[in-house]
Design a protein that fits this description.
single chain, about 650 residues, alpha/beta, Ubiquitin-like (UB roll), Nucleotidyltransferase, domain 5, 4 domains, six-stranded mixed β-sheet, 17 helices, about 30% helix, about 25% strand
Length: about 650
């Protein structure tokens, strides 16, 4: 039977209607009605974010009520991803959690240094050639395509050129409209030395040799997508923009997204969400330099293996299933048209190579930009994020692994956690005598929650001040109102409701602490097991490089105090920011750098931690503040003696 489902959207007061058959999920009805609702867990019923309210008498069957109390159910609340339509319905869609727009800035664009020795004519696979063709006549009836090929051979030494049918359809009109004076944009990746090329675009007129030739370096992060707009002629980064990955609405972690993409229509939707994010960013970047997205002729793309699979709409189910194998680690070149990007339709899209299911192109690009593969010192490269990827080695050898840290340090799984946007508490200090906190808020306004750097700082301060013990238990005997028994055990109040933006207390609970301890334990265990596998002591590591946009906000001292980072001299730590997009930029500019990143991927030995029993032991040992073995953290032990 067919049923009518009417939605009342609380945020706007508008209504929307859909007709669906018996047995459809409420979330399917929402999509049919064009109503957006967040599903950070990928529709598994774990997060409770897609909650809606069913009017009295509405016929729905709740397949799961994991995140609902009996009181919630009595009031008609249901999870849209877990509730089946069995009759006509009136549904209220509550206010949705907003993902605030990340600030986009060119503040550091001018600081990106063009690699030494860069030159468009010898570093680039893209060529821009001005051509002057003899027009056809009764005496010369050569077809347009052959005429263009002849000009390329004679004027640019291009012996063989390929062209798509879509572009071939335009060639005749471009040649005639430009009076047979044109500019050809070619990609010689297939072998310039052999005179082989692919025609990307044919533009009227000859233009100036100084005119920009636009390209982009793209980092598809699980949380954030970053785009650098680059002029290939000068090699300069002209604009930098970033925005939250639109896929967040369908899963905050890669496993949730893989599960969602495996459902009917999920793969198309997931690709559309990330493609739309990239297109919007490129449009924004182009506006800043008065260019158009259709002028972009080349893109290098990095991301973890799941992000690349979802972008290319390649089935990713095998990534999360034993034996954890990707469909492809080295994707072939493709075009903007094939992917759905709003660039020049034949623009080259080069997804850089990854290593394994959980060590993708973001890490190989990070190794490229950080120079781990060129150094003689033993170096530990760590990308602090959802997957916690680690590379250990130097120019002679490299091993790598990934551990599922989860999104706790990005605010997910924490009661008052949030991303690093305006209103987030980013650093905390706790008085060891009064247990009173002092905090700093992004934007200097009233706090709304706590972001990752704030959580690390808070955890360290609560431990050193005695509010938390080594196991993460809250000391409820302290003489302060800041500690109290909450719904989920002991908790500490960071900000009272009167101080906050929303009027509610901002707290950290025992459950929050457990989630954070698991995240930091996974990361620490990952690189310690990696070092043990190759017989290297962490004391022998000459430098620890920390990548990822989150990494640059970490307070080293606090990260060591909770056992997230090893206890080593501070001068050995180096925070590099987004090494993934920088590596994509290097590979975008220089064909030799592109070859180097492929060699990096081939050289790296991947260690699957789930197949290693020692990882579990190391993980369990690291589930304490800072660790069960205090001998590993002498500076923390000394700090505890002083408090």
């Amino acid at each position: 039977m067919e049923h009518t489902v009417t939605f009342q959207i609380a945020e706007t007061g508008a209504t929307a209607t859909a007709k669906v058959s018996t047995g459809s999920l409420l979330v399917e009805a929402l999509h049919a009605a064009g109503v957006e609702i967040g599903q950070p867990c990928g529709g598994q019923g774990r997060c409770g974010r897609c909650i809606v309210q069913v009017a009295a008498g509405g016929k729905v069957r709740r397949r799961s009520s994991l995140r609902l109390s009996q009181e919630d159910i009595a009031q008609g609340y249901a999870l849209a991803c877990q509730s089946v339509v069995e009759g006509d319905l009136q549904i209220t869609v509550p206010l949705q959690e907003k993902i605030e727009r990340r600030l986009t800035t060119d503040r550091v664009a001018a600081e990106v240094r063009v690699p030494d020795g860069y030159g468009f004519t010898w570093s680039q696979t893209i060529r821009r050639v001005s051509l002057s063709l003899n027009p056809p006549s009764m005496a010369d009836q050569t077809d347009d395509w052959s005429r263009l090929q002849t000009a390329l051979r004679a004027q640019a030494n291009i012996e063989q050129v390929n062209c798509s049918i879509a572009l071939l359809r335009r060639i005749g009109s471009v040649l005639r409209e430009s009076d047979w004076n044109v500019t050809a944009i070619l990609d010689t990746t297939s072998g310039e030395a052999a005179g082989l090329a692919r025609l990307i675009d044919l533009r009227p007129g000859s233009g100036s040799e100084e005119d920009p030739l636009w390209s982009v370096a793209v980092d598809i992060g699980t949380t954030t997508v970053t785009v650098w707009l680059v002029d290939l002629i000068s090699g300069q980064v002209k604009a930098q923009v970033a925005e939250y990955n639109g896929q967040i609405a369908r899963g905050e972690d890669v496993v949730s997204r893989i599960i969602y993409a495996s459902k009917n229509g999920g793969a198309d939707e997931m690709q559309g969400l990330v493609v739309n994010t990239i297109n919007a960013l490129v449009e924004l970047a182009c506006k800043r330099v008065k260019a158009k997205p259709e002028q972009v002729v080349k893109a290098t793309v990095v991301g973890n293996s799941t992000m690349i699979h979802l972008l290319l709409k390649i089935p990713a189910a095998s990534i999360r299933l034993s034996p954890f194998v990707t469909a492809v680690n080295h994707p072939p070149l493709t075009t903007a048209r094939e992917v759905g990007l709003d660039f020049c339709p034949e623009a080259t899209v080069d997804c850089l190579p990854g290593v394994a299911s959980y060590v993708g192109a973001d890490i190989t690009a990070g190794v490229l930009s950080s120079g781990v593969d060129l150094t003689g010192d033993v170096t530990l490269f760590l990308d602090v994020g959802t997957n916690g990827e680690t590379v250990l080695g130097n120019r002679d050898w490299m091993v790598t692994c990934a551990c599922s840290a989860g999104p706790a340090f990005e605010g997910a799984g924490v009661a008052n956690g949030m991303r690093a946007t305006e209103g987030a508490i980013e650093e905390v200090w706790v008085n060891s005598g009064t247990y009173e906190p002092t905090y700093r808020v992004i934007g200097a306004g009233k706090p709304k929650g706590i972001c990752g750097s704030g959580l690390i700082s808070l955890l360290a301060e609560l431990f050193l001040s005695g509010v938390l013990d080594k196991a993460g238990n809250v000391n409820l005997t302290l003489k302060t109102k800041r500690v109290r028994q909450g719904e989920h055990g002991g908790e500490y109040v960071v900000a009272w409701g009167a101080e906050t933006e929303h009027g509610k207390d901002i707290v950290i609970t025992r459950v929050d602490v457990d989630n954070l301890l698991r995240a930091k334990a996974a990361i620490y265990a990952g690189f310690t097991v990696l070092a043990d596998q190759v017989g290297v002591s962490l004391a022998d590591v000459g430098k620890m490089l920390i990548g990822g946009s989150f990494g640059k906000y970490i307070n080293v001292e606090k990260a060591v105090q909770i056992g997230l980072l090893p206890d080593m001299p501070w001068e050995r730590f180096e925070f590099l920011g987004n090494t993934a997009v920088r590596g994509a930029y290097y590979a975008l500019l220089d064909w030799q750098a592109r070859q180097r990143v492929a060699e990096i991927a081939r050289r790296m030995t991947y260690i699957e931690l789930s197949a290693d029993n020692t990882f579990y032991d190391a993980f369990m040992s690291a589930l304490f503040l800072p660790h069960t073995d205090m001998g590993r953290f002498p500076t923390v032990e000394a700090a505890l003696r002083k408090t």
